[in-house]
Amino acid sequence: MEEQKKTKVMFVCRTAPYGTIFEQEAIEAMIMFGAYEQDISVSFVGDGVFSLKKGQDTALLGKKNFSMTYPILIDDFEISHIYVEKESLEERGLSGDDLMTEVEIVDRNLLKQKMKEMKALLPF
Amino acid sequence: MKFGVLIKDGQYTHQAMDSAYNFIVAAMELGHEIKGVFFYNEGVCNTCGTMEPPRDERNIRNLLLGLNEKGIRLIACVAAGKRRGLVAQTVSSAAEISGLGQLLELCIESDRLITF
Amino acid sequence: MLHIIKKSPYESSALNDAVNYINQNDDVVLLIEDGIYAAKKGGKFEELLKNLTQKNSVYCLLADIKARGIQENELLENIKIIDYKGFVEKVVEHNPMTWS
Prior knowledge:
The complex is a heterotrimer of chains A (124), B (116) and C (100).
Chain A: H1 2-5, E1 8-13, H2 22-34, E2 39-44, H3 70-77, E3 81-85, H4 86-91, E4 104-106, H5 108-116, E5 120-123
Parallel strand pairs in A: 1-2, 1-5, 2-3, 3-4
Chain B: E1 2-7, H1 16-29, E2 33-39, H2 60-69, E3 74-77, H3 78-83, E4 96-98, H4 101-109, E5 112-115
Parallel strand pairs in B: 1-2, 1-5, 2-3, 3-4
Helix pairs in contact in B: 1-2
Chain C: E1 2-5, H1 14-19, E2 28-31, H2 46-55, E3 57-61, H3 62-67, E4 79-82, H4 84-93, E5 96-99
GO cellular component, one term (chain B): cytosol
Organism (chain B): Candidatus Acidulodesulfobacterium ferriphilum
InterPro entries (chain B): DsrEFH-like, Sulphur_relay_DsrE/F-like, Sulphur_relay_TusD/DsrE
């Protein structure tokens, strides 16, 4: 019963990191949302998949490396799922081994179904 | 129906605020309720209280005052706002500054959340 | 779902990404702002839009096509035009996702 009351919200991240602020402010929102005990999931589609690339080093850029947050989103911030679209990874020459954390790599059709189940979709 | 509105683009550079405004007016004319408008990313800049565009141009500051007079809550994200110089002294009297929890509240309380 | 596409397909992946997430028959597409250029006859996205309109309803926002000087007869066949009230009605009928 308790489970049914939770609102399902999905972040749909479609932008690469650093070039714009969208990834950074999406993460800030994910962290906040996690504290409210709702059913929050995150998906990476298109250029959004670059946000999860291993080995990001922002020292020369003079910016904080926000990708360090992804490995702890589920355990520390109560995010339910992190989905990455398989086709977007492949189109960009990436595979699961290139990603910095364990995520659910799903094909478009499955992610499409997940999106349909959401009450609110937040594009970033 | 109850709508929540999220605005992510800044004023004048993008059309988001104009599209959102026209959508909100149409929704109210059709008898729907706007639970709130949340401003995030560069969208927070729409709530700047010191904007003064040329007089013959549509004025976003006045558009927001009009929405607020209709009883619509306009909420600028505190963190995104601070980052861009939007604080209590610079925010429009039409808007309030609050946290991201308000955006999640809008997701929960509205039948539909629409992003511009 | 209602897929709102608001960037020109010539500058953004919004349309191409959205197409992958459109449920055939059920979903509706609304082109707004610079997104409306996708529906112009003779453009690069004509084939894609034609395929889309076979299974899904595709709408353009009236204010945005008028502002950009696009006449109704310059739009592809089967593209429907709606005003802001029509836009609101589509959001009432379908959960929206915005692609930019």
